[in-house]
Amino acid sequence: MTSPQIDTPRPQRADARRNRALVLEAARRQFAEHGLETQIDGIARRAGVGVGTVYRHFPTKEALLEALATVRFEGMAEAARAALEVTDPWQGFVDFMTYAARTMAEDRGLAEATEQLADTCGRCAEAAGLPELTERLVRRAQASGQLRADVSADDVPALVLGIGRAVRGPDGAPAMTWERYLEIVLAGVRPGAARAS
Q1: For labelling, which of 24, 38, 61, 65 has a CA lying 20 to 30 Å from the CA of 152?
Q2: The CATH homologous superfamily of the domain defined by 13-59
Q3: How many alpha carbons fall within 13 Å on the CB side of residue 26?
Q4: Nearest residue to 80 via CA among 65, 96, 69
Q5: How far apart are CA 86 and CA 101, in angstroms?
Q6: 179 - beta bridge partners?
Q7: Start-end of CATH 1.10.357.10 domains in the chain
Q8: Where do runs of H (alpha helix) occur along 85-154?
Q9: Whole-prediction pTM value?
């Protein structure tokens, strides 16, 4: 008597892995440039594959956006871990904010997804451990006396998203550089900027 066959997932072939990577890179560029208006056929053209290939890897546009958001938030989590290693807590906070602001400002799709698909992006950020890392960065900077005591870790994503929004005019063109906007935001979270009660 033979044992029943157990189905185990087969690893992707090399060409399938290559196509998936091409699709993700093309999608990252398309969404960064054109936002959520990006169409799957444009991604397929840019990747040099058929539309069916895109759908084989990502059955819906939302699944593709989630894969891209996962990569972006994992990058932010890595930046937060590096920032926690910086000796000066304020400089660590600034380093993280700079990475996050640049990412949000340069990726229109991520900025729009964070606003319009908040649950999906929230799951991706949570899976990457970003909320807990942000909390540690904030508490560390506050303990050093360099960050306002009334700033919470929940404020950080709102500030970063605000930068992503503010640097684009109504037509999507830059209205202000993200560096300048970040400079203003950082000045506003320093202890001396707190409002008198």
Answers
A1: 65
A2: Homeodomain-like (1.10.10.60)
A3: 22
A4: 96
A5: 18
A6: none
A7: 61-193
A8: 89-106, 108-116, 118-127, 130-143
A9: 0.84
